[in-house]
Structure formats: structure tokens, C-alpha cells
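Training component of the fellowship. As part of building independent skills, the fellow (R.M.) carried out the full modelling exercise for a liganded target. The chosen ligand was S-adenosylmethionine. The inputs are recorded below so that the supervisory panel can assess the work.
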Amino acid sequence: MIKKDKSYIDDNSPILYFIATPIGNLKDITLRALELLQQADIIACEDTRNTKKLLSFYQIDKPLFSLHEHNEISAANCLIEKIKQNQRIVYVSDAGYPIISDPGQILAKICLQNNIKISIIPGASAFLMGLLGSNIDAKHFYFYGFLSPKANERIKQLKSLQSIPDTLIFYESPHRIKQTLDAIKQIFPNRQICIARELSKIHEEYIRLNTNEINQINFDELIGEMVIIVQGQTQQQEIDKAFLIDEINNCLKQDNLKDKETAKLIAGRFNLPKNYIYDLILEIKNKQN
Ligand code: SAM
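Fellow's submitted model of the complex:
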């Protein structure tokens, strides 16, 4: 059944506002967001300590209610009851948009199941800011969010994105950034990449490089919050891949080398990651079998 909710028709029907909050600079919030926070009876939030900082900056003092990924269903049901009793409720996550790699999806679902409208109040977004500053094609993009924390799973996920022509966008936590960038170097050789760091904060920085240059990064200096933007697959990369496969085939036919030695030789010749060439050798051999 088709259902239409018009957020701006003031028919007194129950509604929950999902408000985007700053991702660093506390001034990045809309007037409408501040108005709704000021008018709320209860501000539901991911982490009360975090939201208190934002509210005290704007001298807003309201009762807070905690809804995070570990209590989302029970907390959402509790909020629904409060909305049904005509309490004005808004929801904010720690930064940026709720729902985007943050809690809120279940809350939104439960609201709609209970005929409570949802309205999104726009604001700062880390992945959009990162994409815009990356200097990588922003016409078509694929936002992936967080990769798996497990190394094998992460490689599998990256491989599934290898042939996508659209720009790829990832979130990553600072303590996994090295492992993730190493995996990106292996799976996406010779692509433009941008690490957009500490956006809207004092140390904001866009690091633009080629994935083949990832080993030149000083990881001790790569701290804070980061978005990773990677160029999608291009026709040129496809041609490069076909060319490399030819080179590998020639090497396999002529030289009596082990696969690992062939990988080392070709990788050295074209300044590419060894693992990438080794994977191509396996791909060639799998096709032959
Ligand atoms: N809901 C948020 C949004 O709309 O962007 C995302 C929350 S997610 C839990 C946190 C991740 O977003 C971080 O690990 C990082 O990848 C990215 N992020 C958040 N703030 C950032 C900032 N100021 N600079 C760079 N990346 C940021």
C-alpha cells in the first residue's frame, strides 16, 4: 500500500525529528535544528555526554534520553509511548546525520509502523564534505560506510567493489586506518585516493595521493577522524589490467619462475603492489583450470 507523509502539514499528527548535528565545528548547525532542540520536551540522543556539550554551547537545557545501538528497540518503544502522549521528541546521534553509520534506523522504522511521521532536519555530513574536497569525481558515488573489522572479510568486501566505476567512500576509525589503507592499496592499485581528516576542525586536512603511494604515509601523523575517498574503476585501469595479464602470461611462459617470484618481478617492473600481481596470477591460473 502506498503511504504518503507530508512532514510540513501541521495537522497535529505525531512526528519525530531526526536532527543532523555538527561533525566537529559546533557552529555547523541550522537555525531550524536549534529551534527544534529548544522546543523539544525530550532530546533523545546516542550519547548524553556528547550531546550535553552541543546543548551547553547553545545554552539549551532539556531532559535527555539515551538511545544507542545496544538499546535501540526498547528505547524506541519507550519514545513512541511518549510521542503518543503528545511529548515533543527529537533524536540526535553523536555527529552528522542519525542513521548514517549511526543509530536511528530502527527508531525510524518503529515510528512509521506506529503511524508516527518522521522528519529529517539536514546539516553536516562527513562523507559529503570529504567527497567534495577530495577532487575525485563526485558525479556518481557509492557510499559504503564502515568496512568489516575482520581482515579477511574486509578484503572480500573491497574485492566486491573492484569493478564499480563510481567513486567509493568509506568511513574508518583511527585505530584501523593503517590496515584499511594497506588493503585498499592491494585491491585498488593505481587509483586516486583522498584521506579527508578532521573535517570542520582545526586540523582539517585533505591528503590526496595515488593508492601506490600509500606506503609513503607517516601513520604516526594520521590521527583523528577520517573519510576515505577512492576513485572508481576506469577504462584505463581495465586496459592496464589487460596489459599486466599479458606481461604475466609472457613471464609465466618464458621464465621458469615460481608464482611469488613472478609477482615480485612484475610488481617491481611496474611499481605495483606484489599482492595485486599475485592475485592476478591466481586469477589467470584459475581460468586455465
Ligand atoms: N553520522 C555521521 C555522519 O553523518 O557522517 C557518521 C558517524 S560514524 C559513527 C563516524 C565516522 O564518520 C568516523 O569514523 C569517520 O569515518 C567519519 N567522520 C565523522 N566526523 C568526521 C570528521 N570531522 N572528519 C572526518 N571524518 C569524520
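The panel noted the following from the submitted structure. The chain is about 40% helix and 15% strand. Strands lie at 15-19, 42-45, 64-66, 89-92, 117-121, 141-146, 167-172, 192-197, 205-210, 226-230.
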